[in-house]
Amino acid sequence: MEKKYAILPDRIKAVVIDGIVLVALMFVITEIFALFDEVPVFFRIIAFIFIFVLYDPILTARYGGTVGHSFSNIVVKREEDHNKNISLHKALIRFLIKFLLGWISLITVTGNKKRKAIHDFAAGSIVIETK
Hints:
Elements: H1 8-34, H2 41-63, H3 67-71, E1 74-78, H4 88-101, H5 103-107, H6 118-123, E2 125-129
Helix pairs in contact: 1-2, 2-4
């Protein structure tokens, strides 16, 4: 069966959903921290790193995508083997480039056959539809 590469609207939908998930995670963590009189700065830093830096790479490496990807029916896979997820270090590279370039990276999806964004080229990943 031929794999279909994810289209730009599905990828944008995933980003928006992930943004909502991140806001919800921030809210939940803030409410948990509010239950305590004093929360050490170390715990706040760890929460920040997990929510904003590790959410995307960990889920992408482990499950092939984030919550947004799942709701958009798309997954991130290795370009050379569509059955395998990308490694954690490649997922981190992918995320950092996506974060630094922002929407510019996503807009490049329309310019190539495999619909790869700049961050996909850097990580050796592709995004395919699951439906």
